[in-house]
Amino acid sequence: MKKALITGITGFVGSHLAELLLNKNFEVHGIVRWRSKMDNIDDFKEKLILHDGDMTDLSSLIKILKQVKPNYIFHLAAQSFVLSSWKSPSQTLHTNVIGASNLLEAITSLKDDSFDPIIQFAGSSEEYGLVLPHEVPIKETNPLRPLSPYGVSKVATDMLAHQHLRSYGIKTIVTRSFNSTGPRRGEVFVCSTFAKQIAEIEKGKREPVIFHGNLDAKRDFTDVRDIARAYLLTVEKCKPGEVYNICSGKAYLMKEILSMLLSLSHASVELKQDPERMRPSDVSILHGDYSKFKKATGWQPTIEIKKTLEDLLNYWRERV
Question: Do 201 and 60 fall into the same domain?
Fold first, then answer.
């Protein structure tokens, strides 16, 4: 039985990946903190092996890795909400960059003939940042021009992964996922906040007003369950030292996403822009090209955006 260790296992993508790995008969380990919310893994928590640790505490990571010695490591733990990175840039950089550095240092210190794992680093399309009109769809070779502290932090973790591969032979693979959504998505993220507001309006728990940020931004969304499949294929089939885009290859205006969600409801609503939801500098378009990843793994998205949004809306209908 192969062992997998997931950092950020209680998060959105981490929980879906853990569920997939269990179904594939992996022994699944995860790192959790005392304050980690367990909601996302409650239904299958007893099948997991959880370890108390913190990405900013090197000694805890060394202890966990020495005990588990996983075949695969999926590094998903991060401060991943872009808007928060402007409000707390130092904390975002500390959490994301120091956390990645500690993980790599721990692996390097323990690497030997019995422990030589493959590590998937979850990067982000936010690393591309300012994308010029002639550069879409975006390939992995596109210049990195991040427009947020979060994007900067992810560029740094990419570079750390590459440096440790070149310096110490650590088998790192970087994936740059474009926007993901689906059931369990945190309510602060755009599709989820729309879906939650609609569900609350349907239940009469709020006024029929949808608050939103920039509806003219264009984003490439992939269902989280397709992302989980992609992450597993990354460690099974991709080449260490390479970078791979994971996306749907389709981009939608945020106003189109909101319109699709509203089409799934009978609620009559007013739309109102919320200044607090606007970013100091926003990426106008993130539209990816996943042909490199498809060539390496055969992967392609299988769940259409309308189905993803329907499942997300039903997720919130069950919870509000």
Answer: no
- Cβ 2 vs Cβ 71: under 8 Å: yes
Measure the N-to-C terminal CA separation of the chain; round to a whole number of Å.
39
Cβ contact 119:75 at 8 Å: yes
The residue among 8, 64, 68, 75 whose CA lies nearest residue 40 is 8
88, 148, 280, 143: CA torsion to nearest 10: 170
- Beta carbons of 202 and 316 less than 8 angstroms apart: no
116 and 209 share one domain: no
| pLDDT value at 240 more than 90 | yes
62 and 189 share a domain?
A: no
Mean pLDDT of all residues in the chain? 96
Q: Are residues 242 and 100 both part of a single domain?
A: yes
pLDDT, greater one: 1 or 103: 103
Q: What pTM value is reported for the model?
A: 0.96
Q: Checking DSSP bridges between strand 171-177 and strand 218-219, what pairing results, if any?
A: unpaired
How much is the pLDDT for 256? Answer: 98
Full 3-state SS string of the chain: CCEEEEECCCCHHHHHHHHHHHHCCCEEEEEECCCCCCHHHHHHHHHCEEEECCCCCHHHHHHHHHHHCCCEEEECCCCCCHHHHHHCHHHHHHHHHHHHHHHHHHHHHHCECCECCEEEEEEEHHHCECCCHHHCCECCCCCCECCCHHHHHHHHHHHHHHHHHHHHCCEEEEEEECEEECCCCCCCCHHHHHHHHHHHHHCCCCCCEEEECCCCCEECEEEHHHHHHHHHHHHHHCCCCCEEEECCCCCEEHHHHHHHHHHCCCCCCEEEECHHHCCCCCCCEECECCHHHHHHHCCCCCCCHHHHHHHHHHHHHCCC
